[in-house]
Amino acid sequence: MKLLSVTVTVILVNFISTSLSISCNFPPDLWCSSKEIAELCKVTEQCAANSWDVKSDGPLVNFTLYYESLCPDCKRFFVEQLYPAYQAVGKIMNLTIVPYGNAEETKDGDLWKYNCQHGPNECVGNLIDTCAIYYMMQPEYFPFIHCMEKSSLDPITAAKKCGPIFGAPVDRILECANSSFGNRLEHEMAVKTDALQPQHQYVPWVTLNGVHTERLEKEAEADLTKLICKTYQGSVKPAACKKFEKPDSKRCHK
Fold it and tell me: Which residues form the Saposin A-type domain (predicted)?
C-alpha cells in the first residue's frame, strides 16, 4: 500500500509539472510581469498579493532604446541596465526598443537593402527583433529579445534556443524576418531612427520622454533604474526606488 501511495504521488507530481510546462513557458522571475503570464502560470493570486502592489499614479516614463543587435555596447546595456531596470521599475516605464542603429538602407525595387555595421548577421538579428516586436505583445517580446542579446550564438540559432523558453512564435518570426513584410517592418525602424533630433551619433542611443542629452545617456548607462525612478513624477514608486530617495533632513524642528 505504501509503494502504491508513493507511485501515485510521483505520477501526480509529474502530471502537475507537465501540465504547468505546457501552459507556462516562462521562467519564475517573469511570472508576475503581466497578468496574462500570471494566468498562464496559475499564480495570479500570489502576484496580486505580493508583486502587483504598485499602481502608477503619474505619467509613465517614456524610455526608448535605439540599438543594433550585434553591437557589443548595445548588448552590454541591454543585459546590465535595461533588463534589470525593466524588472525593477517596469510598472512606471513605457519602453520602446528600435533595432536598426547605425545600419544603412537603399531602395531596391519594392524592397530595401540593408548594410549593417557588424555584418549581414546583424541585419538578420535586427529583422528577427523587429518581427518579434510585431508578433509578440509587450512585455512578452522583451525577455525573448533580451535572451538573444545575452547570447553569443548567431541570431537564428539564438532565436531557436530562446523562443521555446519565452513562448515566442519562432517559426512565424523567422518567416517574417525572411519576407518582404519583415523587410518593410525594418524600414519603419529605419525611419524612426533617421527621424531622431538630434540625429544619433552612436549606439546605444537613448531618449527619455523624447529627449536625448549626453548627460541623460551617461546616467542611463551608469544606473538606468535610478534614472527612471528620479524621472517618474508619481507619488507611489516601486520598492526598487526607495534606495534612491534622499533621507529626511536631520534637524530638530520645533
Answer: 17-57
